[in-house]
Amino acid sequence: MTTPELLVPAGDMEKLEVALDYGADAVYVGGSQFGLRAMAANFSLEQLSRARDLTRARGKKLYLTLNAYLRPGEIPALESYLEELRPLEIDAYIVSDPGALHVVRQNDPLMEIHLSTQANTTNAQAAEFWRQAGVRRVNLARELSLEEIGRVRRETSLELEVFVHGAMCVAYSGRCLLSSALTGRSANAGACAHPCRWGYALVEETRPGQYFPIEEDSRGTYVMNSRDLCLVQHLPALIQAGVDSLKIEGRMKTLYYVAAVTRVYRAALDRYLADPHTYMVDPAWVEELDKVSHRPYDTGFLFEPEDAVVHAADSRYQRTYDFVGIVREMTEDGRALVECRNRFFPGEKLELIGPGMRNAFLIAEDLSNLDGNPVEVAQPNARILMGLPDGARKGDILRREKNSPMPEPGA
Ligand code: SF4
Questions:
Q1: 146 CB near ligand 1 (under 6 Å)
Q2: DSSP single-letter state for residue 43
């Protein structure tokens, strides 16, 4: 049995630290160039160097996305960027474009290369092609079923990576021109405006301005929507199929999302590896995944044809919890220095979560500013001191159930 790696997105340095704290074996990040996800707070060279030190100190891996498809005029810039990256000794580059692969191989022949899902690898012959071109690992196309993943595994020695959690596109593994056409923002440059989730109407050409609704049910149409992928219940099958790396999607997601999702997959993976025969899915894992912002979950194409329903009846985001703060330090007198991310009040019911599926409920109390003065309301971006349950640690996260009753003013 292989021991698969848990690969987690890190949109910035803060999320990278959270990913490591909450159980990632490896993290993938974007640099300042060629990494898609144009809006993410991508890593500068100095930040990449720090990220490399942090991951190395903890025995983890750092991968850098260079997965844009390059135009002819961009090759010299990639070569210069590779020069700058070389001293950082990043563990692997993630590429899609055969041209970018060729340039990396020419400039850094020993660099480990992973092939991105954008390259749409769907069979072992394609995997072998990439292996001969110098690729060490492929992220298989999301369109493959479990049976097909197993078949590719049997027919290639290449490392295999699959997505286990996160957003999906209706486009073929992310290849889509809808956003470019309607907004000028290219999905293939990481700037998708998600027009597949907008509302659409029908117009007859001689009746401009008359919009006929397209309705699948009372809420409209979801003809181009996709659900979110969630394979926590199927990790054993993927491990038995010989997958080497289990990847979580979402370099644009919040720090809270990274923490909550990573700790669930860490717990599930550890439980299975400790004793595959007695492994059972803990309902708490599924509950936890429901507490992050997500569209309804689905198993994508894993069990095709029975479950190849990417188009779903309702694909709106569901968000039941607000991320309200992160513990930056525990003080000597047992209080916590909390960096607030959402407003909360003394008397509100909060939940504290930490690595290893640690959870505790509390009533927010004993709130003060750093000068020791009482705080009536914790504001976003403020740093406050507050009491927390025993066992709270630096890096723990505070969240609040949406629509939980607010305390009476002055209570
Ligand atoms: S418009 Fe939708 S399908 Fe196309 S890339 Fe964006 S999210 Fe994916």
A1: no
A2: B
pLDDT in tens, 53-68: 999 999 999 999 998 8
**Cβ–Cβ contacts within 10 Å for residue 17, how many?**
18
Q: What's the gap in Å between 88 CA and the centre of ligand 1? A: 33
Domain 321-401 sits in CATH at 2.40.30.10
Pick the CATH number of 5-168+226-298 from 3.40.50.150, 3.20.20.380, 1.10.150.130, 3.40.50.2300: 3.20.20.380
Q: Is 111 in the pocket of ligand 1 (CB under 6 A)?
A: no
Largest interatomic CA distance in the chain: 75
pLDDT digits (tens, 9 = 90+) for 315-337: 667 778 999 999 999 998 889 99
Whole-prediction pTM value? Answer: 0.91
How far is Cα 280 from Cα 271, in angstroms, rounded to an integer? 8
Number of Cβ within 10 Å of residue 125's Cβ equals 11
Run of H or E residues at 290: helix 283-290
